[in-house]
Amino acid sequence: MSGFSGKNVLVTGATSGIGRETAVCFAEAGAKVIIVGRNRERGEKIAERIRSNGGNAVFESCDISIPEDVVRLKNSLENESIKIDVLVNNAGIFITQSLEDIDYSDWTASFRANVDGAMLMTKEFIIDLKERKGCIINNASVSGLDIFTSGTKNYMYGASKSALIKFSKLCALNYAPDVRVNVVCPGIVDTEIFENRDFSRFDGVIPMGYISKPEQIAKVIRFLASEDANYITGAVIPVDGGMSLK
């Protein structure tokens, strides 16, 4: 597949999980991938993995929740004459706690990582994306869907992902037809985010009957960025094996 030859794709939170597999997925389709994350060692390893397989990738260190860091990232890419065609706002954190035990610093950290980062990245790169008729894919969660409410400790994660979905819809409305903006809402995905690896606790939760792999989410993200999806904007797509149907 070479549908992204000549395209520059930036993926945040690309040093692990869904972000890592999304970077690999776009590279396999011919894109130059800008891997963005905070962990330089992991990021450089992923970039090298892509290059060793014939792909094109570079790593850029950035904490997307810090405005000055995002500006520095934009300036760094401009200095290398790189303009973005596809922005994948994937970076986020997963913190859960009962309401009585929520620490305010965790609440603000959740919104900074899961909402503010996507806003800062979108704000900084929207001019490039308009010029290049690009697109944005934001990684939310089934936890942010109005139709799905689950979990006794999901206040911070669910609320922040719901905010990301609303932000995405507003961007889709206000920047059409120049920039398409869509959202994927994964369910339970087998990534490093889970410290408890006993997935049997999810038995009976997913109609499809199994936990998804990050590459399954990555392929949907790539589709939404492709020409095959050129009439889709403002869509919020659960990729959850039917989990949100319950």
Overview of this protein structure:
By secondary structure, the protein is of the alpha/beta class. The chain has a single domain, classed as 3-Layer(aba) Sandwich (Rossmann fold), CATH 3.40.50. It has six helices and seven strands; from the N terminus they run E-H-E-H-E-H-E-H-E-H-E-H-E. The protein has a seven-stranded parallel beta sheet, with helices on both faces. Helix 1 (17-28) crosses helix 6 (214-225), helix 3 packs parallel to helix 4 and helix 4 (104-131) packs parallel to helix 5. The chain is globular, with a radius of gyration of 17 Å. It starts with 7 loop residues before the first strand and ends in a 7-residue tail after the last strand. The model has no long low-confidence stretch (mean pLDDT 94).
Structural class by sheet pairing and helices: alpha/beta
Number of helices: 6
Order of helix and strand elements from N to C terminus:
EHEHEHEHEHEHE
Question: Which runs of at least 5 residues are low in confidence (pLDDT < 50)?
Answer: none
Spatial order of the strands in the main sheet? 3-2-1-4-5-6-7
Radius of gyration: 17 Å
CATH superfamily: NAD(P)-binding Rossmann-like Domain
The CA-CA distance between the termini, in Å, is 36 Å
> What does the main sheet amount to?
7 strands, parallel
Mean pLDDT, as a whole number? 94
> Globular, elongated, flat, extended or rod-shaped: what is the shape?
globular
CATH architecture: 3-Layer(aba) Sandwich
Number of strands: 7
CATH topology: Rossmann fold
* Number of individual domains: 1
CATH class reads: Alpha Beta
Fraction of residues in helix: 40-55%
Note the beta-strand portion. Answer: 15-25%
